[in-house]
Amino acid sequence: MxxxxxxxxxxxHRLRVAAxxxxxxxxxxxxxxxxxxIRYESGLSCxxxxxxxxxxxxxxxxIGLLLTDCTVHTRYIAADQGFSLLVRKYLGLxxxxxxxxxxxxxxxxxLEDGVYR
Length: 117
Description:
The chain is mainly alpha-helical and 117 residues long. It has helices at residues 5-18, 23-30, 34-41, 49-58, 63-67, 74-91, 95-112. Helix 2 crosses helix 3 (34-41) and helix 2 (23-30) crosses helix 4 (49-58).
């Protein structure tokens, strides 16, 4: 399989920016030099499979999405990233805060179902 390095680089850049990570932060987390990561993001080089998998995990995506033109799925990716962030924030809350949120969700569902119309 031939890898479209320019497309890979574009996807790496877009997802890294969406994750609010610098090139240095991502490279460090992946255990590679910043210069090597810049080569990947610039479309000059392709990471070995193990590093590509590690980078995909750091960017909360899959190798498949890194290697394909996923601009069609941008809305879904953004929604998924937003949901992942929401879940992480929710998991960090206290028990009482979680109960309040669940109560609010219940009220919103009832509102949607027309209970409060």
